[in-house]
């Protein structure tokens, strides 16, 4: 059995948090290469509302950037998943997790929010689902605030060498990181690579690449950890 390497392509803080959680839950030590393919640049010119009653977070990045702009923790918050919810709690927010996708968060908001709420969807410049528009279409008072810009980052030479020569598992957590990765490795053989995606949407940009793709049972960190543990158990050099 050849032990594969994990290639983590999310922003490094989230990548390290995931690998730490994976190691803690599985007691498995795995070599890791950190090579983000997406860069996060916070915006300075953020229009801070003074009437917010409900904030929506869909990433740890949005929690981190928002928390640097204001010390107000009075609004209620709803988060897309438990990882984001943990980050919000660590910043002093009272929050609840939809424990799923953007669509799950939308359903949670529609179930709880009222027409009196002033809802703010805090996001990057790219969003797979504009929650503010979806909520407006349902008669709610919602607005999107863009907190940061997302841009592609070039894979490191170490990462490219691993993809060319070594058994590698690449966890994929969003369609955009998948897209940025696919654009850089279209001519890489990927003989010993395997992708592990959090959802079908995250896997879509990888179609056509010569490497097998697996999908986690549920779009959660816990499910990704379980799927990764199983993938590593079954992985051999010939895969």
TrEMBL record:
Top EC class for this record: lyase
Residue span, Tetrapyrrole biosynthesis uroporphyrinogen III synthase domain: 32-225
Keywords: Lyase, Methyltransferase, Porphyrin biosynthesis, Transferase
GO biological process: methylation; protoporphyrinogen IX biosynthetic process; uroporphyrinogen III biosynthetic process
Domain of life: Bacteria
Catalytic activity: hydroxymethylbilane = uroporphyrinogen III + H2O
GO function terms (MF aspect): methyltransferase activity; uroporphyrinogen-III synthase activity
Enzyme Commission number(s) of this protein: 4.2.1.75
Keyword Iron-sulfur: no
Keyword Transferase: yes
CDD domains per record: HemD (cd06578)
Record pathway: Porphyrin-containing compound metabolism; protoporphyrin-IX biosynthesis; coproporphyrinogen-III from 5-aminolevulinate: step 3/4
PANTHER family membership: UROPORPHYRINOGEN-III SYNTHASE, CHLOROPLASTIC
Annotated family: Belongs to the uroporphyrinogen-III synthase family.
Function: Catalyzes cyclization of the linear tetrapyrrole, hydroxymethylbilane, to the macrocyclic uroporphyrinogen III.
Protein name: Uroporphyrinogen-III synthase
């Amino acid at each position: 059995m050849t032990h594969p390497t994990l290639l983590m392509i999310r922003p490094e803080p989230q990548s390290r948090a995931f690998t730490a959680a994976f190691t803690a839950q599985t007691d498995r030590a795995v070599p890791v290469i950190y090579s983000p393919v997406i860069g996060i640049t916070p915006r300075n010119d953020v229009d801070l509302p003074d009437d917010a009653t409900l904030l929506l977070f869909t990433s740890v990045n949005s929690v981190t950037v928002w928390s640097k702009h204001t010390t107000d923790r009075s609004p209620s918050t709803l988060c897309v998943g438990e990882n984001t919810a943990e980050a919000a709690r660590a910043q002093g927010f009272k929050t609840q997790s939809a424990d799923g996708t953007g669509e799950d968060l939308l359903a949670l908001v529609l179930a709880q929010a009222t027409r009196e709420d002033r809802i703010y969807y805090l996001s990057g410049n790219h969003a797979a689902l504009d929650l503010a528009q979806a909520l407006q279409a349902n008669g709610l008072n919602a607005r999107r605030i863009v907190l940061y810009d997302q841009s592609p980052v070039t894979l490191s030479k170490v990462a490219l060498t691993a993809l060319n020569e070594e058994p590698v598992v690449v966890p994929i957590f969003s369609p955009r990181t998948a897209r940025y990765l696919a654009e850089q490795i279209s001519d890489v053989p990927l003989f010993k690579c395997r992708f592990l995606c959090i959802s079908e949407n995250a896997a879509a940009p990888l179609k056509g690449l010569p490497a097998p793709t697996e999908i986690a049972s549920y779009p959660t960190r816990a499910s990704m950890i379980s799927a990764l543990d199983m993938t590593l158990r079954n992985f051999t050099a010939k895969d």
